Amino acid sequence: MAHPRDILLGAQAAAGLLPVCDHYSGVEDRMRKSLQLQAELAEEFGTCVVDVTLDCEDGAPVGGEAEHAAMVAELACGVPASLRVAARVHPVDHPAFENDVATLVGTQGARWCHLMLPKTESVDDVDTAVATIDAAGGEGLPVHVLIESPLAVSRVFAIAAHPRVQSLSFGLMDFVSAHGGAIPASGMGLQGQFTHPLVLRAKLEIASAAHAHGKVPSHSVVTEFRDEAAVRDAARRAATQLGYTRMWSIHPAQIRPILAAMAPDAQQVEEAAAILLAAARADWAPISHQGALQDRASYRHFWQVLERAHATGRTLPAEIAPWF
User: How many domains does the chain have?
Assistant: First the structure.
C-alpha cells in the first residue's frame, strides 16, 4: 500500500513532524527532572511526545553564561538518541550568543533537534544566527524563532520563508512589554491574550505566516502554570481557533493538558483512518464516504489528523499501523 506521505504531494504536513509540546527549563535541577520526565512519557506513549528545550537565555545567571552553556551541553550528552532535546541561545546581538553556539554546537552539534533563537527581529537576524551555527559545525541544524515584538510581527512572513526556520513561536510577555504600557498587564493573562486585539492579531499573523511556508506555529506560555484547566483551555483555543499545532510548557504540570488538548479525539481518529484506508483502496482517486465527497484535498487534512494523533501518543487503528 502506498504511503500517504508519498501520495499527498503539497500537503502542509509540517505539524506532524514535531511534538505538540515544547517544554522549557533553565535551572539545572529542573532540566534534569524535565529530561527524566520526557523519557518516562516516551515510554508511556510509545513515542517522543514532548521536546525538552534547555534554556541558555533566561536560565543563565548574569556573568555565568559560559558556564551555564557548558553545563547544558553536558546534560544533552546523556540524552538517548530517541528523544528530542533543544537549546535556547541568547539573541544574536547579545555578547554571549557566539559562545553559546560554539559551546553547544561545537561539542554536541549532532545531538540537538534544533536551536531556539529569541528576540528575532528580521531575516538578517536569522542569517546571522545560521552563519554562526554553520561555522561551528551545525550545518543544516534547524532553527526555531521567537517573535516577540511589533516589528518582528510586521516581518513574520519573510522570517517564516527562511529555509532553515522550522517553527515560529510567539513570545507573549515580551510582546506585551514591547508596547510601552499600551497593552495592559492583563494582556499577558489567560483571558487577555485571547481577547486583546493587538495580541490576538499578532498570534494570527504568526500562525498564518507559519502555515503559508509549511512551518510549525508554536503558541505562547500560560503564566497560570499550576492551573491545569486553564492550560488545557488555552491549548484547545490555540489549536481550534488560531491554528496553532504546538505549544510551550514552562512547568511539568502543563505537559499532559497540552497533549490532551492538542490531540484529536477518538472519533476524529476513527474517521480519518476510515477515509484514508478507503482512499488507498481507490488508489487515491475521489471517493464517497458516508454521502460526502472526499478527494486529495481532504485526504491531506485527514492525514494530518493521524500524524497529530501519532505525535500525541493516541492509539491508532491497527489497519494504519504500517504507515507509522
Answer: 2
In angstroms, the Cα distances linking 111 to 163, 290, 319 are 20, 47, 34
Q: Which domain holds residue 197?
A: 14-262
Say whether both 294 and 182 belong to one domain.
no
Say what the pLDDT of residue 15 is: 42
- Burial letters 177-203, b for 16+ CB under 10 A, else e: bbeeeebeeebbbbebbbebeebbebb
Q: Which of 219, 246, 262 corresponds to the end of one domain?
A: 262
Q: Is residue 8 part of a domain?
A: no
For residue 11, the model assigns a pLDDT of 46
Q: Which of 212, 231, 262 is the endpoint of a domain?
A: 262
d(CA 10, CA 304): 12
CATH code of 29's domain: 3.20.20.60
Are both 195 and 269 inside the same structural domain?
no
User: Are residues 294 and 282 located together in one domain of the fold?
Assistant: yes
85 inside domain: yes
pLDDT for 8 equals: 82
pLDDT of residue 16: 47
Query: 193 and 304: one domain?
Result: no
Give the mean pLDDT per block of 10 residues along the chain (324 residues).
Answer: 74 63 96 97 93 96 96 94 96 97 88 96 98 96 97 98 97 96 94 95 98 95 87 95 96 95 93 94 93 93 90 88 86
The answer to whether 35 and 86 are in contact (CB under 8 A) is no
**Residue 9 pLDDT:** 62
Q: β-pairing, 287-289 with 292-294? A: antiparallel
Type of residue found at 306: L
